[in-house]
Structures are given as structure tokens and as C-alpha cells.
Design a protein that fits this description.
Number of domains of chain A: 3
Oligomer: homodimer
Largest sheet of chain A: 6 strands, parallel
Helix content of chain A: 40-55%
CATH architecture of the largest domain in chain A: 3-Layer(aba) Sandwich
Distance between the termini of chain A: 78 Å
Strand order of the largest sheet of chain A: 1-11-10-9-12-13
Radius of gyration of chain A: 26 Å
Strand content of chain A: 15-25%
Chain lengths: ~425, ~425
């Protein structure tokens, strides 16, 4: 872990620099996979699945029988945990529903916005070593709340052609019926272009490796929306002397185990805490199953001593972390000063894991500094807000002259004329 | 205008196809401009401004003197019109403010979302033949409402080095003080990377020609957010026999005059209306100042006869227009069935021009079919919504076991441990 003591402001950009993401070396390969899927549909999917997932499939669809069998393979404890998480996520996201509010900007000029579900969405859920069924809750629950008509889930099969039962069970629980055994860039291609089995969607959600991420980026240039641009997962902790070093160390490690490129930064005004945490990390690390991954991530992690918490806040706002834990005495007050972050965890009893799984907030969040301008996934991500306006004759009579004047000044005669011709008709009284 | 009579559903995709946008021919040039700006800052901006705008500048900044002089160059009528538009836009967008609502998903698990302004934004306003000061209102008013700290406006100078006074006046009116005389891809580069004079921003808004659009797309790959992917402007009108053909023709022309690539589609269940509109378009076209542009756009426009309005609605939802006028007897009922559109204009007295300028809704809208998944610009575009969560000891005790179970099932031990270590401390009672 790299240690910085009261670094000069001028050095912050360098200290806070993220690794450069360079996908150029495999862009050609990903583009080729996409083109193959576009040209050959299901055939290409079967082929790539055999090649990359070492699974030979007869069909891409998960059957009703497979779905029905999934529940029996999960412990009751796990099913109850998933139920609790689902309920909390539902509770938090249902509160994001917005009523239609008609605004009468002038008498007879009525304007409103209406949230309308995106009709067809695709969810990508990575398989492999860790089946991320929690992400199905994070995407499937708001999609169902929004009322998306068609929800398609793609996930890579295991070599024996099966899908992890936790994935199938969770998908069933949130009402997803269209599940396909296809992963990688080829799954993104299928969702973007459609194949014989898989319908084309309007927006693609979900995490994935560098190939999946790049594929999402490439299809987004062709008009398919995506949830968020993606980078490695990140955590910043701002902690003072009141924090428990064991908890802080555990939180840092929970982020570090995500991947060797995870970003982990601890900022504190207490050098004692920093050194305690450094020791505690080593202690806790030894027993982790993903120790090797966490160790690599820790090599690039940073411990930063700052003169006071206000400076710490400035520094973290400049970094714009995906996850931010405020483990300080006045955490709730500090939270008000957070400007750039995806999700914020307040106090000693709010580990990042809570939001990753079950507190109710969404865990699909902006990484790589995107928190400066992007929000995490929410109910909003599954709808578009269409604006409506209805003018009465009186409304147009009040507003019309201003429109004519502005259109004329912008030298758009036909824009002006669309109003003038109506005002003339009203003046002539030939229109009822 | 191309005429289609009750086209078969299978032919819809072809009839509704948009022109392919291919920017590959000038991608290299735009990329070079961006790299020059990144490497040489202001120097490059002066150079490109001399080259492309034929303006030799001493300074990029618009001075206080220039700002102060602008008002005197506008008629009182235009100033009043801009004021009215500003007031309506403000009225509609202020209603989009959201209060923070804390959701207690479980006792002791408090979660909320907070809208926080994007700190630094850039607005691009095209100059040239038509100074689009209306776009300054559409972007500047919600930016001010959101509380963006730094708002930078770039607009190309005229050959004499001046900027259209309507642009300066409107910018001043919405409180924008940082205005720079730079246009094209070089302006986008300046906003994305920063130069000696122009600060780097987090998000770039605003319309532009194909170079500007491509530059926005290219910098968005480097982590700068942009408002919307852009394509040519579009209008669909669904009209029945009750519509006034003169109004419909005027509305079609108001879209057609935008540019030769504008998309204009009229859908109706009345062949009489379609033929009347076709004639009326020719009549009105003759007197337009932008007649040549409109004529070119009309060549690709479509008149589509459908058996009934329900079919018309299906067809337009499939197209997903930027602007949609419903000029039918039951327009308000039909509006409820609109699934894909940017902004909808209801009835005989709601021309698109109303929304373009002054009704209060935003005119920065999704084109090119993006309306299937994207919303137009709104207050939301100028904020990110940060989620917060605060667990009490009791909250963690209720939620903790579910998190542990799920983390274990996803094979993320360290995620589990961040909870376990806290629950153990609580059990041992060593923590106050």
C-alpha cells in the first residue's frame, strides 16, 4: 500500500490517477465477434459458446424444467436472504416513482413529463467463478417496477451447459422468463442486433469483463443505449481516529477482492489509524479465499494522511469515487459535503457490502471518475421521460407572438409561420 | 414527398429507415483537431478560429464591454420574447426539483438519494447563419436551477471577431459569464481537456454540425459526459380528417427548414388530408427564405396513409420520433398511447415551434430513434443522483446475516467479512 503524508494539492491529480484503460489491443477481436453475430445469428452464438465457454449446447434458451429445478438447489437460508434483499431494493426503488405533474406555464399552455418504460431491455449477468445473482436483483427489480415489456437475460453457461441455480432462481423471483445461455461480447451482439432466438433490445445493462464492456461501448455507437460506461470498481474511505481499524481494513479488503485492478483508497487525519489499518489488512488478508486478487489490488492502493477532514473531503470529491465510506464521528454532516460519488456509506455500521447486496440502494454505480457527471442505476434508468404540451387557442394567442419574434430572430421563417398561420386563422375567426 | 398507401407491416422498417450516419470520412480530421487542442491549448484555438471561422482574435474571452453592449442591439420586442420564454422554461424545469426522501427499508436501514449539481459544464452554441440563442435558454436555465458552479459557453465568432448580440444577451440573462469565442470540434476539445483560458468541464451540452457531434462522441469515450447522441432533427405528425391541412403543412415545413437531412413524416387515416397537405406544402414553400433547404428535406419526407389511427400510432412508436404532433380529434387520448417519442404536441393549437422556443418544455431531444431509450434534456441532465445509506447497529444486525449469506454464495469472502467482523464486535459487546 502506497503511503502519502499531507500531499501537496498540486500532486493530487497524480496520486489520484486511475490506471489507463486501453482496449485497443482487443478492439478488433471484439468487433469481429459482434460482426459474426450480426451476420450469422444463433449459429455464431453456438460457435462462440463452444469456443469460449467450452459448452456445446442444443439450445440457447433456459428451459422451464431448468427454471423449476433451480429453487431445489438453493438453501432456504439463501432463498430467504435473496427475498430480503429483493424486498429492500423494491422498497427503495418504488419510492423513485414520479407522478405526472401538469405545469401550466401560461394560461392555456399545459406541459408535463411522463415516465414511460423502455420497452425492450437486456441484462448481462457474468457467470464464471462467482455467479453475480445480486446484480439480477439490482437490475431486474427496477425493470419490473418500470414496466419494461421485454426483459432478456444473457449469462454464460458452465462447461456442462448448465447455469448456476442462484442465477436462475433470482431471475425467476423477479419475473424474468427469457434467459439465454450466452456470454461475452457475443451476448452483447445478440442483444444489440437480435438473432433467431434473441430479440433486439433498446438498452443493455450489466457488468462484465473488458470484452463485454468494450462490446457494450461499441454497440452504443450504433444507437443501443447502455447503463453506464464502466471501469474497475473503487472504494474511498474517509476515516478519523474514532473509526475501528478492523472495520476499515475489512471494508478495504472487500473492495480489493473484486479484481486485481480494483482501486482502494483510505484517507484519514489520523496517522495512528492509517498504520493500524495497514497492519490489520495484513492480518485479515491471510484467511481470504481471494487473497491473491486482493493482494494485487492492494499494491496500487493508497493510504493518504491529510491535515484535516475538510481537506480529505476535497481530495475525495476530486477523485469522485464509485463507493465512499465516511467512517468519522460526524459522518452525517460530512455526507452533506459530498459532491462527487456514486454511493455513500455513513458511519461505523454501514459497510459497502450492505449496499452491494441488501440495504436497498443500487450497486450499479459510476466508476472511473464518471461519478462527476453520471448517476448510478435507478428506476430512471429503465424509463425515458417524454414531455407533452397542449396549447389551447388562448394559450397560443398568449405565447404565439413571442415564438414568432424569436423564430424570426433565429432566421427560421417556417418555424414562425407555423404560429402565424394559426394566429391568422384565429383572427379571421374562420376556425371554430 | 414519398407516398405510401397502407404499407404492409413487414415494409415498415424500410419505410421508416433513417439515413445512415457515417462520420468515418472525417473522423481522422476531427481527432487531429482534438489532439492539437490537447497539445497546444489556446494556441491551437486561435489557429483553428482563424482557419475555420476566418476570425483573427486577440483574446478568446468575451469582454464585459461586449456583454454590456449586447442588450442595446436587440429590439425590446425580442428582449420581451426571450424573457417570456425564459420564464416558462424556468417554470417547467423548477417543477422537476426533487426533495430528498429518506426510505427506511428496514428498521435502522435508512437510504436516500440526493440530486447534486454537476460542478463544471460546457455549453456549445452554434453561430453562423442562425444564432441559436433559444438553446442557451434550454440549457442555461436548468443549469442555473441545478446549481452548476461553473458554466462555460463556447460559440464561434463571426469573421469580424464579434458574437451575435442575441447570444450574448441571452447568456447574460441566464447568468452565464464565461463565454469564449471558439466553435467547431476545437471548442469541444477545449471543454474536454481544458486550455490556458478555458477550464475542463465534466459534461458538454449543445447542438452542432457533424464535426461538433463527432467531437462530442470522441471525447465521451475519454470520460467526459455528453447530453445526448445526436442525429438529424425529426418530426412525425399523426393527423386525421379533422386537422387543418394548412397547419399540418406549416408544421412539416418548420421541421424541413432545419436542414437538408431533416426527417419529416406525416401519417394519416385520411387520403384527402394527405393530398391537401401535399398541395399546401407547395404553396407555403414558395415564400420561405430557407426554401432550398426545406425542398431537399422534403424529397425524403414521407406521407403515409394508414387504415386507422391505432395503426398509425404503432407505426410512429416503431419510428420513435424526436418531435411528435398529434393533430387529431382525440389527440389527448392518443397521447396516452405514445411509447417512443422525445416531445409530444397535442392538438391543433400546439405547433412544434411552441416547444422549440417558449412553451417551457426542453427542445434538446433524442433524435435518430434514441427516443426508445433516452429522455430529452431536463433538470436531471445537470445533476447526478448520489445514493446514501446509514445503518444503525440494529439495522446491521437485522440485515447482516442476509448479506453474509449472499456474499458467501457469490464467493466473495471479504464482502462477507466486512459484516461478520462488525456483527462479532456487537455480539462481544466490546463496542459502545
Amino acid at each position: 500500500m502506497l503511503y502519502y503524508e499531507n500531499p501537496l494539492r498540486a500532486s493530487w491529480p497524480e496520486i489520484l490517477a486511475r490506471p489507463v484503460l486501453d482496449s485497443r489491443s482487443f478492439e478488433m477481436q471484439v468487433q469481429q465477434i459482434l460482426e459474426e453475430v450480426r451476420a450469422h445469428g444463433d449459429d455464431a452464438l453456438f460457435r462462440f459458446t463452444a469456443q469460449f465457454d467450452r459448452a456445446t449446447l442444443d439450445r440457447l434458451t433456459v428451459t422451464e424444467t431448468e427454471m423449476a429445478a433451480a429453487a431445489g438447489k438453493l438453501t432456504d437460508e439463501l432463498k430467504a436472504a435473496i427475498e430480503m434483499a429483493k424486498s429492500n431494493i423494491n422498497c427503495f426503488h418504488v419510492a423513485q416513482k414520479q407522478e405526472i405533474a401538469v405545469v401550466e406555464t401560461l394560461p392555456g399552455v399545459r406541459c408535463w413529463r411522463k415516465s414511460v418504460a423502455i420497452e425492450r431491455i437486456g441484462l448481462y449477468i457474468p457467470g464464471g467463478s462467482a455467479p453475480l445473482f445480486s446484480t439480477i436483483l439490482m437490475l431486474g427489480v427496477p425493470a419490473a417496477l418500470a414496466g419494461c415489456k421485454e426483459i432478456i437475460l444473457c449469462t454464460p453457461p458452465r462447461p456442462d451447459g448448465s447455469v448456476d441455480p442462484a442465477i436462475l432462481y433470482t431471475a425467476g423471483l423477479v419475473g424474468i422468463r427469457n434467459i439465454f445461455k450466452v456470454g461475452g461480447a457475443q451476448a452483447i451482439g445478440a442483444l444489440a442486433f437480435g438473432t433467431e432466438s434473441i430479440g433486439r433490445v433498446d438498452k443493455i445493462f450489466g457488468p462484465g469483463n473488458a470484452y463485454v464492456t468494450l462490446a457494450k461501448q461499441l454497440v452504443s455507437k450504433e444507437g443501443i443505449a447502455i447503463d453506464l460506461p464502466a471501469g474497475p470498481s473503487e472504494l474511498v474511505i474517509l476515516a478519523d481516529a474514532s473509526a475501528d481499524a478492523r472495520f476499515v481494513a475489512a471494508d478495504l479488503l472487500s473492495q480489493a477482492e473484486h479484481g486485481p485492478d480494483s482501486q482502494v483508497i483510505l484517507v484519514s487525519d489520523s496517522s495512528e489509524l492509517l498504520s493500524e489499518v495497514r497492519n490489520e489488512v495484513q492480518v485479515q488478508l491471510t484467511v481470504l479465499s481471494r487473497k491473491n486478487i486482493a493482494e494485487q489490488a492492494l499494491k496500487n492502493s493508497r493510504l493518504i494522511l491529510v491535515q484535516n477532514l475538510a481537506t480529505g473531503l476535497e481530495l475525495l470529491n476530486q477523485y469522485a469515487p464509485e463507493h465512499l465510506i465516511l467512517n468519522c464521528e460526524n459522518a452525517i454532516l460530512l455526507a452533506e459535503k459530498v459532491v462527487n460519488a456514486g454511493s455513500v456509506f455513513i458511519g461505523n455500521w454501514s459497510p459497502e457490502s450492505a449496499g452491494d447486496y441488501a440495504s436497498g440502494t443500487n450497486h450499479t454505480l459510476p466508476t472511473y471518475g464518471y461519478a462527476r457527471a453520471y448517476s448510478g442505476v435507478s428506476l430512471d434508468s429503465f424509463v425515458k421521460k417524454i414531455t407533452f404540451q397542449e396549447l389551447s387557442k388562448e394559450g397560443l394567442q398568449s405565447l404565439g407572438p413571442a415564438i414568432e419574434t424569436m423564430a424570426a430572430a433565429e432566421q427560421l421563417d417556417a418555424h414562425k409561420n407555423a404560429v402565424s398561420i394559426r394566429l391568422a386563422a384565429l383572427r379571421e375567426g374562420v376556425i371554430s
